[in-house]
Amino acid sequence: MSTATTDELMDLDEALARFDPVMGLEVHVELGTSTKMFCSCPTEFGAEPNTQVCPTCLGLPGALPVVNAVAVESAIRIGLALNCSIAEWCRFARKNYFYPDMPKNFQTSQYDEPIAYDGYLDVEVEGRSFRIGIERAHMEEDTGKSTHVGGATGRIHGADYSLVDYNRAGIPLIEIVTKPIVGVPGHLAPAVARAYVAELRELIVALGVSEARMERGQMRCDVNLSLKPAGAEKFGTRSETKNVNSLRSVERAARFEIQRHAAVLASGGTIVQETRHFHEDKGTTTSGRVKEEAEDYRYFPEPDLVPVAPSREWVEQLRATLPELPGARRKRLAQDWAISDFDMQSVVNAGALDVIEATVAAGSDPASARKWWLGELARTANERAVELAELPITPAHVARIVELVSAGELSDKLARQVIEGVLAGEGDPDAVVAKRGLKVVSDDGALLTAIDEAIAANPAVAEKIRGGNHKAAGVIVGAVMKATRVSRAFRLRATPAVPSAGWPPAGTERVRPRSGP
Amino acid sequence: MSAITREEVAHLARLSRLELSEAELDHFAEQLDAIVGAVARVSELPTEDVPPTSHALPMTNVFRQDVVRPAGTPILDRAEVLAQAPAAEDDRFRVPRILGED
């Protein structure tokens, strides 16, 4: 069928030296509405097969669709958040194709009159900002879910037959299409694709229109990619890699297609315009079907639905409901916390933005909040393979620990034990402190007496310290610890006898951002 | 008026997942040609001043509240629905292998 099924790959660096990639990303977002796009069937995830269906979403004769008001509102809010213009008048259209995932034999979508168009989204990669143009965002409905039976892989290839569950058919989808992404340095292109999808996902979540969980298929990405000879104007033929369903896969799919296209083109071959399947396990793509031309879908205005004509008043009302968007929020918080864009990126990559913000809101200073969440807690989350927010410790707990440390009641070392206790389910920080008997000696009188005695007992050492050899203080410290029977940790306020003697150890730990997923 | 070609019919048949014999291709090409010709007569009307119209009713923004199955919504019985399909298995509709061209 196709001549471009070769899996020959060109080295990525060589490919990018010879060709410029042009990308286009199509992202489908399942809205989190209670009901479907055109009928009142529930949209709950994981229901028994074919229990959330009705004559409308099964395409039974005579059934008539009615548009979900909240879905239209969500579409407009997404459009506004993406700096799009909102159509004053637009229609739904039938996209005709014969495939069993749509029982109607057409998908109700929008064609040349999308509800939102001509916007942009800014993303940052390696400290550089890229503006991704948004071509359009339009409303449509999801398809049914097919399970392919038989065959080796369970995917479409080699399946003997398919079983279809229409619970998902008709769930509102917003399809967001970028303009061609050009002018990104080739070596950053795959990362920019990933950053765009990540930023879009955050924006969707911030808007509250969808949970956008990629592993549940609530957000799915198609990666269009073509290559043109370096410096050339004219775009090459593109391939469309469908259903790339994780951020990491977006990057890998783009990289693979760059290498594959380059190998085909360099050997004098031609790229066939086709859809490709992405294989999560190997990070490769294989040929799907030859792409139908738009005219093959025989789009026409949906006669069963009247046009959507959002009044400007309505649009402005919806604009007023927009929350602070993720990009703006990050800028504001970076400023409030006095950290660099790079450090903010570490916070975001660690998935720590929300918890740190909540910890600061609960009274912690930003630096301490960052220290604990990116250090001790990020390590634990990594070990347990969970998100920070899923750890059994709350921002309020962390704020309380920070408070105890800054009040001098806990040292960092003791604080770590308190965290350990909270994570082990021993209760809140105060309960752990009480239960484990963790307390810094804060009786200055007792401490000073012990220090005086220690100095008196070690006159030679004291002389060395006075002479500037601060390392010698270890002997005094050891003697004081022994005298006060503090074996775990204690906090010592600066006294003339031991000026910055290297004890207690500086309260800072190495803060290491967790590597991305 | 150019005639509908056999190739066009074959292409439409493929899009519609219909298997047509050589004789049927000729037969439908001729029929479709007659139908398209008949519809084309509309273009003889003076329609310069008539705006394109997709809907007969001058209505916009007909929406439904996002409420699950409001009172009175008939609920389909799954067994009954599946019983009317040509084939079912595991509470799902069973359909032929998809993408025969692969």
Automatic annotation (TrEMBL), chain A:
Residue span of region Disordered: 497-517
GO BP annotations listed: glutaminyl-tRNAGln biosynthesis via transamidation; translation
Any one Pfam family match given in the protein's UniProt record, by short name: GatB_Yqey
Keywords, ordered alphabetically: ATP-binding, Ligase, Nucleotide-binding, Protein biosynthesis
Top-level taxonomic group: Bacteria
Catalysis: reaction(s): L-aspartyl-tRNA(Asn) + L-glutamine + ATP + H2O = L-asparaginyl-tRNA(Asn) + L-glutamate + ADP + phosphate + 2 H(+); L-glutamyl-tRNA(Gln) + L-glutamine + ATP + H2O = L-glutaminyl-tRNA(Gln) + L-glutamate + ADP + phosphate + H(+)
E.C. no: 6.3.5.-
Asn/Gln amidotransferase domain mapped to chain residues: 354-494
A single MF term (Gene Ontology): ATP binding
Job of this protein: Allows the formation of correctly charged Asn-tRNA(Asn) or Gln-tRNA(Gln) through the transamidation of misacylated Asp-tRNA(Asn) or Glu-tRNA(Gln) in organisms which lack either or both of asparaginyl-tRNA or glutaminyl-tRNA synthetases. The reaction takes place in the presence of glutamine and ATP through an activated phospho-Asp-tRNA(Asn) or phospho-Glu-tRNA(Gln).
Entry's family note: Belongs to the GatB/GatE family. GatB subfamily.
Assembly mode: Heterotrimer of A, B and C subunits.
NCBIfam families according to UniProt: gatB, PRK05477.1-2, PRK05477.1-3, PRK05477.1-4
PANTHER family for this protein: GLUTAMYL-TRNA GLN AMIDOTRANSFERASE SUBUNIT B MITOCHONDRIAL AND PROKARYOTIC PET112-RELATED, GLUTAMYL-TRNA(GLN) AMIDOTRANSFERASE SUBUNIT B, MITOCHONDRIAL
Name of the featured protein: Aspartyl/glutamyl-tRNA(Asn/Gln) amidotransferase subunit B
Automatic annotation (TrEMBL), chain B:
Gene Ontology MF terms: ATP binding; glutaminyl-tRNA synthase (glutamine-hydrolyzing) activity
Enzyme Commission number(s): 6.3.5.-
InterPro entries according to UniProt: Asp/Glu-ADT_sf_sub_c, GatC
GO biological process: glutaminyl-tRNAGln biosynthesis via transamidation; regulation of translational fidelity; translation
Record-linked PANTHER family: GLUTAMYL-TRNA(GLN) AMIDOTRANSFERASE SUBUNIT C, MITOCHONDRIAL
Binding partners and assembly: Heterotrimer of A, B and C subunits.
NCBIfam families according to UniProt: gatC
Functional summary from the UniProt entry: Allows the formation of correctly charged Asn-tRNA(Asn) or Gln-tRNA(Gln) through the transamidation of misacylated Asp-tRNA(Asn) or Glu-tRNA(Gln) in organisms which lack either or both of asparaginyl-tRNA or glutaminyl-tRNA synthetases. The reaction takes place in the presence of glutamine and ATP through an activated phospho-Asp-tRNA(Asn) or phospho-Glu-tRNA(Gln).
Name of protein: Aspartyl/glutamyl-tRNA(Asn/Gln) amidotransferase subunit C
Classification of source organism: Bacteria, Bacillati, Actinomycetota, Actinomycetes, Catenulisporales
Gene that this polypeptide is encoded by: gatC
